Amino acid sequence: MFSDLLRGEIDTVLSSMGLSGVVFAIEHPTVITHGDFATNAAMVAAKAAGKNPRALAEEIVAALEAKKIVGIRTISIAGPGFINFTLDDSVFRDEVLRIGEEGMHYGEQHSWKGKKILVEHSSPNLFKPFHIGHLMNNAVGESIKRLAEFSGGSVTAISFPSDISLGIAKAVYVVAHDGIEKLHACTSEKEKLAYLGDCYVKGTQLYEESDTVKEEVRTITETLFNGTQGEILSIFEECKRINLDYFVSITSRLGSHFDAYIFESEAGKVGEELVHSHMDDIFKKSEGAIIYEGEQDDLHTRVFINKDGRPTYEAKDLGLLSLKFSRYEPDLSLFITDHEQTSHFDVVIAAAKKIDPVWGAHSVHRTHGRMTFKGQKMSSRLGGVPLASDIIDTLADEVRERAQDLPVEDVDAVAIGAVKFAILRAAAGKNINFDPETSLSFEGDSGPYLQYTAVRAHSVLRKAEAEGYTPCVGDCTCPEGEAALIEKMLARFPEVVRLAIEEWAPHHIATYLLETAQAFNGWYGNTKILDTGNPSIRYNLAVTKATTDVITRGLQLLGIAMPSKM
RNA sequence: GCCCCUGUAGUGAAGUGGAUAUCACAACGGUCUUCGAAACCGUUAUCCCAGGUUCGAGUCCUGGCGGGGGCACCA
Asked: What is the distance of C-alpha A83 from the center of its chain?
């Protein structure tokens, strides 16, 4: 990356002036006429040097100019002491050609090369419908997983399905009470899922209303936790199977694949044992329960084993952590949940560190916000929460209206691209106000906008090829004038990817892709690419090709597929 | 009450301590007999308040005010 080269050169110059260890920035000026790169090095170092920033800047510039760095056209000083660099157009043009050569590999990083990365995301409650909240987790999680792969790491994706809880026992109670025949009478998978969803809601209601139900649910909970063979367990297993199959099908429709599952039931057992084996040093009894006193870490107390002797979510997550590290020995363990669980995990990690410091040191928690609906927080227990499949289907209908006769996979690519992009374009961790009218747009800052840009560019390339013109490789006749914004934007892809990986923040990619698509569309608007009289026609095709490559790769990193047409 | 997150055009969002704060939607006005108008070009409008640190603050610190979340046996 040119910015790294520049950083190295500036560093050397500063050191030679006796100013080593200066932390300076290299950035793209907001106004492109200022140059391609700018540094604040002179301003930052001014104090230590005992000089005024502009005077120091002049010395630095003189030293840099003496080096005659290849690729730099002009160096200038501006404002309070910025040093601006304008690059030779050839730098950008070489980069465009490099993209042509590297294609989907362009921008690949090596920061985690040779390291094992474990990513856990999209963990469902197997007895609750897969709703819009899961969609958010999946969008963020899948993108982080792909960023991890692009960082050079060897990645394992897992999910942590919840298959044991009081809520599940309530649902099983209703299924058993209705009779398993009712489930079997459902003719389609969809019907079965809807029925099981209803059971979950109904179970919660009945449990609140009646003491006898409470008693029966209690027995069922016992059975499930102990794994006692019998009718209840087989009903449970069947329901779990149906829900898990659905989870696999919906997440694969969304573009996710999981290498393995760790179920809450197994994590619960492991966690329970861990807590019991660290009773005196880490955990303690209190009011019949077993707790971890988070106050010692400036956190708060959490219950790990409840007074019935069963592991709570805390112990389950502790067990999960233990299983993750014993099975996969990751150098980095990323997990994604919604942000309401932040303080829960702070406590779990604090306790886990005392068992094994590596568990804490190698774990990174990334969060996403909640979907709010007209300002109201959505809860699946209250019903009325949009299901993931409903949202996708509604959008798919709209896609079909805009473009008839699209293959199913293209319809899905656009519909799912719209939802995922709406989620990923904002920094994760903040709530997203979901307004069906505007949130899932096909225009403006949207997934389909990016897809459209690439598809249209691709269509130009096809037409050019039919007329015997292909993007040039290596030996090119480049245009006379200055490099266009699009050419400059393309070259930024690697640094954006690096930032996204450093922060595990997909939205940097999203923002960049929008800017790049805008730059391309602006260029497209006033450039006749297929101008056979233009000597640089094949270079212009290379720019077009590089744009489709970068957008396609960027969308892939966001977990969004590219339709063949739209 | 304590702790964490958060406050940027009418709306939804970007913005590694830097120069003239960016993008979209909405509104208004243009551009398809021409490589795909899900596009392009143009106009209007913004950093919650008060202190502080700094050569420089939307960004860091302190204190308010508003929003969200967490705080003992749900996940």
From this structure: 35
CB-based contacts of A313: which residues, under 8 Å, 6+ apart?
A: A344
User: Is the CB atom of residue A12 positioned under 7 angstroms from any atom of strand B?
Assistant: no
Task: Give per-residue pLDDT as tens, A6-54.
Answer: 999 999 999 998 888 888 999 999 888 889 999 999 999 988 888 888 9
pLDDT at residue A509, as a whole number: 97
In this structure, what DSSP letter does residue A162 have? B
Q: At what angle do helices A166-178 and A211-226 cross, to 10 degrees?
A: 110
Q: Model confidence over A175-184: pLDDT tens digits?
A: 999 999 999 9
Q: How far apart are CA A533 and CA A465, in angstroms?
A: 16
Is A226 within 7 A of strand B by CB distance? no
Structure tokens at A559: 């977990």
- Per-residue pLDDT at A382 exceeds 80: no
Residue A363 CA distance to nucleotide B13 C1' (Å): 29
| DSSP one-letter string for A460-518 | HHHHHHHTT-----SS----SSPPPHHHHHHTTHHHHHHHHHHHT-THHHHHHHHHHHH
Q: In sequence order, what are the residues at sequence separation of 6 or more whose Cβ sits closer than 8 angstroms to the Cβ of residue A248?
A: A258
pLDDT at A394: 87
Using the CB atoms, write b or e for A171-201: b if 16+ within 10 Å.
Answer: bbbbbbeeeeeebeeeeeeeebbebbbebbb
Domain architecture of chain A: domains with CATH:
2-87 (3.30.1360.70), 161-253 (no CATH), 268-368 (no CATH), 390-557 (1.10.730.10)
For the CA atoms of A247, A249, A251, A252, what is the dihedral angle to 10 degrees? 150
- Cβ of residue A165 near strand B, that is under 7 Å? yes
CA distance between the termini of chain A: 34
Residue among A450, A400, A396, A408 at smallest CA distance from A425 = A450
Which nucleotide C1' is nearest A565 CA?
B36
User: What is the per-residue pLDDT across A458-511, written as a single tens digit (0 to 9) for each?
Assistant: 999 999 999 999 999 888 899 988 899 999 999 999 999 999 999 999 999 999
Which bases of chain B are under 7 A from a protein CB atom? 3-6, 11-26, 35-41, 55-56, 68-75
Cα A351 from chain centroid (whole Å): 27
Reported ipTM: the value is 0.95
